[in-house]
């Protein structure tokens, strides 16, 4: 049996993940790096085409979602209403390839952030859940 170290951060508890991401400013930097990766990676062409030409609102929605999802202020709810991941993506053709392209963009974005290595790993693993919930087809 492994005993957890009380000095180690417990990501997912309270606002620990939000703080590990650098708060709202850190999350917005992550989201900017994410959309930059989406613009640049050939593997992301299809998912980039699912977004409007101007990404300002997309950037704000993702950053707002991540703020609350990581235990910080519920910015998405305040600005856009309840979060309904499947319904919000129901008009798009999102299968495993698109989910994986989204996660690849997030992986690339995380590489450029000053987050702790264990937090980057934790975050990418946790983001699989909403990415999977966005799928609309097999």
Structure description:
This protein is mainly α. It has one domain (16-133): Globin-like. Helices cover 62% and strands 0% of the residues. The protein is built from eight helices and no strands. It has helices at 16-20, 23-40, 45-49, 56-69, 75-80, 85-89, 96-111, 117-133. The longest helix has 18 residues, at 23-40. The chain is globular and about 45 Å long. The mean pLDDT is 93.
Give the topology.
Layout: H1 16-20, H2 23-40, H3 45-49, H4 56-69, H5 75-80, H6 85-89, H7 96-111, H8 117-133
Helix pairs in contact: 2-4, 2-7, 7-8
Low-confidence stretches: none
Q: Give the rounded overall mean pLDDT.
A: 93
Measured by DSSP, the beta-strand proportion falls in under 5%
Helix fraction, binned, reads 55-70%
CATH superfamily: Globins
How many beta-strand runs?
A: 0
Outline? globular
Radius of gyration: 15 Å
The top level CATH class name: Mainly Alpha
* Topology as a string of helices (H) and strands (E): HHHHHHHH
Q: Gap between N and C termini, in Å?
A: 38 Å
Determine the structural class based on helices, strands and strand pairing. mainly alpha
Number of domains: 1
Brief overview:
The chain has 138 residues and is an all-alpha fold. The protein has eight helices and no strands.
What are the key terms here?
Globin-like, 8 helices, mainly alpha
């Amino acid at each position: 049996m492994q005993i957890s170290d009380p000095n180690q951060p417990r990501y997912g508890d309270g606002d620990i993940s939000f703080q590990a991401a650098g708060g709202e400013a850190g999350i917005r930097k992550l989201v900017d790096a994410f959309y930059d990766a989406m613009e640049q990676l050939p593997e992301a062409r299809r998912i980039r085409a699912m977004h409007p030409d101007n990404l300002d609102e997309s950037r704000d929605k993702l950053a707002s979602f991540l703020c609350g999802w990581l235990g910080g202020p519920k910015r998405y709810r305040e600005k856009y209403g309840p979060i309904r991941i499947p319904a919000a993506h129901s008009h798009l053709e999102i299968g495993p390839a698109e989910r994986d392209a989204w996660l690849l963009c997030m992986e690339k974005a995380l590489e450029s952030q000053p987050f702790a290595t264990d937090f980057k790993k934790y975050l990418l693993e946790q983001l699989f859940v909403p990415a999977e919930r966005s799928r609309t087809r097999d």
